Fold these 4 entries.
Entry 1:
Amino acid sequence: MHNALRRLAGIFLGALLFAFAATSASGQAQEDVLVEPGQTFTARVLEVTDGDTFGVRRSIGGIVTIRLHGVDAPESAQPYGRAATRAARRYVGGKDVRVAVEEIGRYGRAVARIEARGGDLGALLIGDGLAWHYREYAPNETEYARLQKQARGASRGLWSQASPVPPWAWRDRTSGPGETSVEDRDCSDFDTQPEAQRFFERHRSDSSGGDPHNLDGDGDVSRASGTFEY
């Protein structure tokens, strides 16, 4: 009787492992689809990481990580960081959007515009006072500059603060030894490698580089793919 139960348990466990492996392989096959500058496509927004970073699934299949072109939203630990994330979710979370790829960032993310029913997502967030015009990387976006000036003049969102700190300056301040343990992360904080990879890419920003959370502690990031061993 005991032997029969052991055999049944073994068969059941084997089936579970097989199903998990098949699901993982399928998920990996859909990760990080390559796109090119100038490419446009429709997609469903699956994940709003924060106000300027998104995971989308193309209508023809494949998942792409998007970094908004010309926009830098406050980090989650900054004032209005969570408000920016909530606003982005309200505008595009779970919705079908149009993506226009402007360039590929140095860490492989698609830097792109996202068009939703309400209009250009970057313009919406900047106009709400929940993101900055990233002038260094999009100096010709005069509409973004105009909307930021307008939001600032109206003291909307982050501009209600006396001296709001730009996200790029905040990252420079918090990426060194003084970064608090509350914001620090290591691989044990993530369930999967893709999840850790997304966090790694988000905080190894295209503007400042570096690995403030030391996720790539052994320095094995591939220059070609931007991925690290988990």
Note: The longest helix spans residues 2-30.
Entry 2:
Amino acid sequence: MKRLILSAAFALSAATPALADDVTDTLQSAIEAYESGDVQYALEELAYAQQLLRAMKAEGLTAYLPPAPEGWSREVNTDMNQGLAMMGGGTGAEAVYSGNGVSFTVTLMADNPMVGAMGAMFASPMLMAAGGEIIRVGRQKFVDQDGELTALVDSRILVQASGADADTMLPVLEAIDYKALAGFGR
């Protein structure tokens, strides 16, 4: 068990060298709790360290949401990840773009089991076309289903835009760096 806790602590702390002190302090607290025989508290501390790291990862995904177009505003939804736990986990980021009396939402969802299940549909052009009209944003294919634009990046990251017509949402979708997004979390 001690080896497992130390391995988890090392892996979590090695994930990014500049982790916040809260993470390293929590991992150290887990080790100390284990060494003193308080396994339950060690588990609680490890769970808390994971929560902190997931929040850091979510902030990283938020960086892929483009800034608002000229004359528009962008409001990031910081509560998005709480709902993902009920959908099998993963990391999410979401922003509402508002301007000219219109608003729409762009959602990014990575490493969620439900998203992975959609991979077959996006891998098959016939299935994709059956789902709606295909729209290209650079090299990325989106399916337009009654105004909701959906794409799957690297078979694991869902990108959705909804709430306005496609022509209004496309400039924001065009501003996403899909190649960099495919490398998220790796």
Note: Residues 9-20 have pLDDT under 50 and may be disordered.
Entry 3:
Amino acid sequence: MKLFRALALLLVVTGLSGCGYNAIQRQDEGVKTAWSEVINQYQRRADLVPNLVNTVKGYAQHEEKVLIEVTQARAKVGTMQLSPDALNDPQKLQEFQAAQGQLSSALSRLMVVSENYPQLKADGLFQNLQAQLEGTENRITVARNRYIQAVQEYNVLIRSFPNNLTAKMFGYQVKPNFTVENEKAIATAPTVDFNATPAPAPAATH
């Protein structure tokens, strides 16, 4: 009897392996790992925002609107946490993308505004923060691209026969991915051209 059970278990394990169960497990974990790296890099960017805003505020108090936009966008991404277990919800992923896209746009506007303040651009802390921001944006792009590839490979795997039967049996579903139109928006990293001729600083109001 024990031998029969052992043989039966071996057949089940072999059958699952042959139907792609183990491969689905690996790909699913790969997607979660890739997503964790995306979150880490987005958090790294969010952590830079308060110091960046405070530094700009010291030289560009008249840019209150832009500073508020950045602060609000940063606060919004803080509420848009998306765990790996929630990645199957396309609406939540879209909302997450939209929030990150708003922060990217706000940061880009802040960098453009900084061009009007030569003293700000010459500030060592600002230069350091700007360099960290650009490096983080690059890391975000790399992490996001790896996630996109991981999702594509996972989706192809669970759609292929006979893996699709195994996926259906165990409840594995196609995962949504970054949309093309939003991908273009959030892939634009804030940049500053330190060689550009600065525009005159706005006159102080009394």
Note: The chain has a mean pLDDT of 82.
Entry 4:
Amino acid sequence: MVSNPQRRDLLADAGLRVLAHSGARGLTHRAVDQEAGVPAGTASNYFRSRDALLSGLAERIFARTAPTEADLTGLKGRSQADHLLDIVRRTTREPDLMRALFELRLEGARRPELGRRLAETLHRGYREDVAFHATTGLPGGAFEIALLHYAVDGLLLDLLTTSIDAGPDPEDVIKAFATRLAPEVSAG
């Protein structure tokens, strides 16, 4: 039997697939139920409103793309570029997750309540990244981490949507971000 947290994750994962493939307009509780293969009304039992569903999807994206302990152990003592490459690897391994996040961010710009909820999640993630750098000895402060976020978000948008097709290998782009945006950060 599937437990409540497992069912919620199953529904959220189905919702992410719907969101990535059909956009925010195609995301309904009914579409999530159909994608998950559960009885009608199940998604609305777990996510009472559209905003609750959208917020739940955002949380699920970050849970699924978070680094594992093995990821973090493997990155100990590595350069900033290696950390950024790991982020790109984890987020492009399942492209629908980031496509769904792009959809959520756009929808959050149109729906103030969702925007506030999503902003809380994004702000928390940013603060955690800044703290991670401070506690692991990675150089760079809040400003440098913000620059790297902006750059990586743009790269991911280009990799996972209609691309400008400029040609450089993403690994070369990441290394350039690390050296050009925060030279003292990449020296490690």
Note: The chain is about 80% helix and 0% strand.
